[in-house]
Fold:
Amino acid sequence: MRHVRAILVGTMLVLGVHARASHVLGGNITYQCLGGNNYLVTLDLFYDCSGVAAIEQTLNFTSGCGNQSVTIQPPTPVEVSQICASQLPNSTCNGGGLQGVNLYSFQTTVNLPPCPGGWLISWVSCCRATTLNLVGMAGTWLEARLRNDLAPCTNSPQFTENSVPYICIGQQYDYNFGLTGLSGQHLIFTLIGARGFADSATPINYKPGYTGTMPIPGAVMDPLTGQLTFTPSAAGKYVIVVRVDMYDVNGVLIGSVMRDIMVIAMPCTGSTPTVNGNAVIVGPDDGILYLGNNTIEVCDGFPFCFSLAFSDADAGDVLAVSSQAATLMPGSTVTLAGTNPVTVTVCWTGDVNNSPVHLLLQANDGACPIMNTASVGVNINSVIPLASTPDPGNNANVQVCPTAVPFNLIDQLGGAPATSGFWTAPDGSVHGPQFNPATDVAGTYTYTVGNACTHATATLNITFTTNMPDAGVDGTLNLCGNGAPVALATGLGGTPDATGSWTRQSDGAAVGPNFNPAIDAPGAYVYTVPGIGGCASASATVTVSVVAPANAGTNGALTVCSSGSPASLFTALGGTPAAGGTWSGPSAVTGGMYDPAAMAPGAYVYTVNGTAPCGNATATVTVTEQAAPDAGTDGAVT
Structure:
């Protein structure tokens, strides 16, 4: 297994050469209260050992009460290279060829009296190495915010995962920053954009396809544990910036810290360890609430155990696991079962004097010279019993339509449930407060109020109805104005239910099921089938158009003298016939005229062609000829 890192090692040597110009690979600022408004402030900077040695650094302290700056000389570095122990002498930090990383912790003690709005502690450098996700080589900005005006003598959380990760392209990487919060603090993790443009806090632009909240496509961060999962697709450096906000027990923001760090993706011939799912409570669960997302709440004084598993696709790898349990959870025990996969079981007794705990567990594959790692954080919060148990409401059943809009689960419970609880899905996983019929499953959802010591539950059983209303598919009707009434439903597509009703879209007025083209106005008509079993109503629209019928007038008669002049057949029609029609009869008609001298009397038919769906229209003029009076010829009588 030790030979499979050859590609990765070669790439490290190359990246090391290109890193000389910009040797800071990331960092963070944290602080600890020493009393009397004095704070020990630490600036952690990760240096590429292929570059120049660290120089003095300046921290800036800004507030509404005044500003100050402190210049700090470089301390002795600590090597944090992701290299196996036997190969550390061959890192660039020790004169070798393997890419190495040193951590410099610049520290100073300053007096920061409480000031409205608190203090901003910042550091900036001119430039950084070329990366895959940032535009150009802009600088690096780090900051921490201290709100000792709201929470006197508060310590920031401390980063315990101190490395510049070397990771494999095309493989999932599980990473946790390993922040430890102190008593009474709750931490929220957020991915943010990198800053440092023009040696200031100005944001740096990202290349197309990358953002501060998505520094690597597909990256996902859990806001409660800071667990970050991503899969790099290309070799190179990526910048990831996380802000960690600190809240007191009342939900008041009392400070924040951030880390700006590079991760370096390389081609590998081996596999990276992965975290197999979330923590699982094992053994008795009295006095314990699993809040999901690797977050556990335990009642003060109650023992509990949880398990996590790591695995590696390289079957021959033996995984080594480390944790901070001995330091962060005094009296805890950690046991391992197996080597690949390896299951870690941590047991402890809840302690409100040592809460909350953000426990970091890390597995490495033992490869040399470059160890592949995976890390995961577990939040453990100890609580004391409540004075009274909140009301979770009453159990309820609800039938939901698969096409319904999302709704709040709590609104379906009976009684008056407290709003401070949380939901678990039918599989026991923590669920959000809303139910989305398009993505959530049917089953029993449990609402829990209170804490691990004192809590109560109510259940909501959700089933999906199969009686979904069907109004058919939108359609059209094209009718002739003199046609017979037609059922509007004949214009619908699909298989509409027969239980709906019709309205006119223009004004919402109810109409009958039939459309009479002789008296009804064309337009859009809406068919609505009422919802049942929790389904919303369904509707479809029929758009009706009416074509004017052809008009040939009405039958008429024309009487002419056999010796008379030509007469108009058209004027002999009754009504208001349309012009442009054609005539047919005993004799050919020219120009719509009847000529007694050349034509035979009889029925002459006038035809006007109709536009579909209307047919042709006809009317008849009956022509009668009267013989001219005959007086004979002139004569003489003698």
